[in-house]
Amino acid sequence: MKIIDTHCDALLKLQHAKRGQYFYDQKPLHFSNAKELDTNLERLKHGNVKAQFFAIFIHPDVPSEEKWQHALEQVDLFYTEVLEKHPEMRHIRSWSDLDTLRDGEIGAVLTLEGADAFGNDLMKLRQLYRLGVLSIGITWNNANLCADGVEEPRGGGLTLLGKEVVKLNNEYGVFTDVAHATVKGFWDIMELAEYPIASHSNARAVCDHPRNLYDDQIKCMIAKGGLIHIVYNPPFINYECEEATIPDLIKHIDHFCSLGAVNHIGFGSDFDGISSFVDHLENAANYQNLINELLKYYSEAEVKGFAYQNFLEHRPGM
User: Fold this and answer.
1) Which InterPro entries match (predicted)?
2) Domains in the chain: how many in total?
3) Helix (H, G, I), strand (E, B) or coil at 77
4) Is 240 left (phi over 0), alpha (psi -120 to 50) or beta?
5) CATH classification at residue 178
């Protein structure tokens, strides 16, 4: 069964390796088959991933004056290492491109995790749209000029700048991602966003982690036609635990479905951004293990929904 995965951090790994070549004589990573990449091309093919989202992520420790350069480096690696060297990887520049993928092609979607990259410069944000970014997460865990992230103690919501970003996302047909938003930020986003997504989040009622969604948030996402994509990071599955099984992960899907989200669920692995893994779901090559387990509990139509169809039906413009 084909898969759409809405979050991975392969670009950050590729950037670290590229910089390591210059400063530490490290070997390069090849997107085709580097074992260090959970989402390398070989593994994407084996797992029957039909579309993979690649996040631009800038760590908060990067000095402010260097963040834009770091973002552009990751965009450049997306173009040079992922797309140009691998004709099977097709850049998804508009949501309708997903409908024209040919057999053997894998869609590559560029996203942004955290507004730190553009600071308060909306010209830079518009440039990211032009480069093909189709989903914007306003925050990561830290605070920035647009909003607080989940680890910021004050727990603030959107700033005036952050509200302008959400409005621009609407204008450009781009998702606004609530994955790392505070509770206040979530509700601020939901007041404005036409295209909300939680690209990699689980259910807080099952695992009480601040990165997960409360039931009222889940119900609001459903009401607004948003998407909730489950994440494979064990501490977000079993609180403060570095171990998880596929049945543990399915408990979150069960809970989402109990609230009426069966047509809003998808997958957002966080591969290449996590350091521990679900048993038998350690990288993109193992995706069909999750599908096979889900088919024990859900109909084929429902599992196809989780795997790709729900996303296709709820993407902007549909």
Assistant:
1) Metal_Hydrolase (IPR032466), Pept_M19 (IPR008257)
2) 1
3) helix
4) left
5) 3.20.20.140
Nearest 5°: the CA angle 118, 122, 124 is 50
Using DSSP's 3-state secondary structure scheme, residue 230 falls into strand
Beta partners for 229? 266
- Domain holding 309, by residue range, is 3-314
Alpha helices for the chain (secondary structure H): 10-24, 41-46, 67-77, 122-131, 160-172, 183-192, 215-223, 234-237, 246-258, 287-294, 300-304, 310-314
- Nearest Cα to Cα of residue 269 among 279, 260, 280, 277: 277
Q: How far does CA 188 lie from the centroid of its chain?
A: 20
Tokens of 178: 């609530």
Residue 270, both tokens: 């966080």
pLDDT digits (tens, 9 = 90+) for 2-31: 999 999 999 999 999 998 876 666 788 999
